[in-house]
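task queued by scheduler; priority normal; single chain, no ligands, no partner chains; default sampling; output format set to structure tokens
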Amino acid sequence: MKKIIIILSYLIIFFNSNLLCEEKDQSLKVGLLAPLTGEYKELGDSLLYSLQLALAEIDDEKVFVIPRDAGFDNKEKLNSAIKDINSLGAKVIIGPISNNDFSEAKKYSDITFISPSNINPEFQNNVISIGISLESQIKALVKFLKKQKRKKTIIMYPENEYAKIIEKKLSKLKLNNFQKFKYKPDPQTLTGEIEVLTNYSQRKKNLEIRKKMFEDKEDTQSIKQLEKLEQLYTLGEVNFDSVIIIDFGDSLKSVLTSLVYTDVNQDKVLFTTVNQWFDESIFYENTIRNLYYPSVNYKEFKKYNSNYFKKFGKYPNEITILAYDALGLIYYAWKNSGKINSVNDFLFKNKIKGKIGVFSFNDKTVEQELEIYKIDKNKFIKF
């Protein structure tokens, strides 16, 4: 039988700090660790607003959120916030935001933490990360490329502080038939490395040699052939039919530009990437005709952004949709068992559908079923 997909239904309640201490054990108290002061205050406020939207959909008077300022990369503030939340009876907390704070969270074994981090999809003691993991994204792309009958894929990633983490994850996924290519992020060095990868120099030489064969000939066929060659930049194919670029922002754009510069035929080679949140700045990369990537549900993402804007007059930080889903997930677990004692209460047999899409919890690992989107003519199109 197919697994049942359960839709998290969220429905209105507003924050009421005075009631938090008065509620009995029948209530669901959920803590929020967020940077409500300092440099990242805007992110903290966005997380708080996101939970207000989720509460408005849950519409259960027994559900309360206890927000506390945990700062950012501040262990003293973080621990103080956790203790304060716990003293008010909350046994489940949304946060920490950063994977770097997990070591502190693990000290509180009687509390379950639901983090928007995407570094590790596996349950880590009492911490569950529901961020869009690289593992889920790569699995979605591998499935997509298989359907497209691509057999020579190169996985490209930068040589930076995340390189070892990426390599470890790729090793676990056992992508034995995929070639890996690590590049230096510096644009000047990058272009040279891509030239080597694409055999650019030899392909340019191939073109010059071919053109010379027709330059001194005056017959009609030779003239036409030469005219066709004059329209080319290189001659010959690259030795791959698809790429997965594990990068984002300006660094991703540099890689894409270098691939186009080295005359990689976009009609024959599929360009795919990860870590995209429908960033419209990619539209201005006019040289890129098609780019594919796995992501959260675009329709729900737009709907969430629109509701947030109508309520608060500004747009949310991207990761706040994860906090929104986290509260719905916690509410479902609470309704399912009547209480939340540990991470084991989140080992659902059924798949869960939230704003970000469908996800499941198998063998204490969070897996997202992501959709493939295509950037084409300044639009995000579900493939």
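post-processing summary
- The longest strand covers residues 28-34.
- Residues 41-58 form the longest helix (18 residues).
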